[in-house]
Design a protein that fits this description.
309 residues, alpha/beta, TIM Barrel, eight-stranded parallel barrel, globular, binds NADP nicotinamide-adenine-dinucleotide phosphate
């Protein structure tokens, strides 16, 4: 496994993070296998959100499973996210909701503190002064160690930074070989011939690098928003051929190569994987040992359907 020290944030965190969004479907015993397998493969960082599963079921299942793993709370980093309220059909970054959500997560996860708390998706009505008050209260109470955001544009981060005194250490965004706008746009800059030149994220990746904000790539094996995986998917023949060739050369799985493609980027991004299959977790973690060359990286990028201008 590769480990990073997040600037102004948690230290020695694994480059691959185990996402827990799909955990509600598992029994407690199966969830324990997922957590323990991930840990044994070097993963020490687990990603949650208040909205994963009905009434926070992912967090509840995780807490139910954790004692079965033989691990201690201090062995791992736990991250949760707040602000998405599916039951109300709104996004909510009010102080009241941030505080209540953090307390709900702590209770469900059966822990005293979150290592990181992220604002999940922008509340269009957010008041940065209220967010700042909520973060101060959570920090003062020792309930949250570090703060960050998810799916946020640079200008919204700047606006928050004007009020929030804690460093925003993470921006969790969607990135995979098939969902790579974050990387694409600067390549096609000012090109009228393709809508790849349209900036949809305000150059979030470079902004985060400039401001020492660690990017976490969510759904690293998916196409579309939640289209399914492109691994072994006949709709992506070129990409699977390129992944297959490198997988054979490196003696790892295609999924490991797809994750290695993210880890090869010099931004030191964390990849948040979502599989609930222990064998897939083991396959993927081999990615940390794979050294893709500059040429390999571009070959995969082009095989995913992009072209060089
Ligand atoms: N911030 C946000 O807005 C946001 C949004 C979505 C997700 N997330 C986070 O990102 C995490 C990962 O998302 P994700 O689950 O969509 O990620 P993913 O790792 O891209 O996809 C995992 C899915 O692909 C399937 N899959 C099929 N073949 C596979 C193979 N060979 N290897 C591995 N997986 C394979 C898995 O099924 P099996 O279980 O059968 O392997 C699982 O259903 C979530 O758990 C959550 O923590 C964040």
């Amino acid at each position: 496994m590769k480990y990073y020290n997040i600037a102004n944030g948690p230290q020695h965190v694994s480059a691959i993070v185990q996402g827990c969004m799909r955990m509600p479907a598992l029994s407690g015993a199966d969830a324990a296998k997922v957590i323990r397998t991930a840990f044994d493969c070097g993963i020490n960082f687990f990603d949650h959100a208040t909205c994963y599963g009905e009434n926070g079921a992912a967090e509840t299942r995780f807490a139910e499973a954790f004692p079965l793993t033989g691990l201690q709370r201090s062995d791992i980093f736990i991250q949760s996210k707040c602000g998405i309220c599916p039951e109300r059909q709104e996004f909510d970054w009010t102080k009241e909701n941030i505080l209540a959500s953090a307390d709900d997560s702590l209770r469900r996860l059966n822990t005293d503190y979150l290592d990181t708390l992220l604002l999940h998706r922008p509340d269009l009505l957010f008041d940065p002064a209220e967010v700042a008050e909520a973060f101060d209260a959570l920090e003062k109470a020792g309930k949250v160690r570090f703060f960050g955001v998810s799916n946020l544009m640079p200008m919204q981060i700047e606006l928050l930074k004007k009020y929030v005194k804690q460093p925003l250490v993470i921006n969790q965004v969607q990135l995979s070989l098939e969902q790579s706008q974050l990387i694409d746009q600067p390549l096609y800059m000012n090109n009228k011939a393709t809508d790849m030149s349209v900036s949809r994220d305000g150059c979030a990746l470079d902004f985060c690098r400039l401001h020492d904000i660690t990017v976490q790539a969510w759904s690293p094996l998916q196409f579309g928003m939640f289209g399914g995986t492109f691994i072994d998917n006949p709709d992506f023949p070129e990409l699977n051929k390129a992944l297959g060739e490198l997988a054979e050369r490196e003696n790892v799985s295609k999924s490991a190569i797809a994750i290695a493609w993210i880890l090869r980027h010099p931004a030191n991004m964390q990849a948040i994987i979502g599989t609930m299959n222990p064998a897939h977790i083991k396959d993927i973690c081999a990615a940390a040992e794979v050294q893709l060359s500059h040429h390999d990286w571009y070959a995969l990028y082009l095989a995913s359907g992009k072209f060089l201008p």
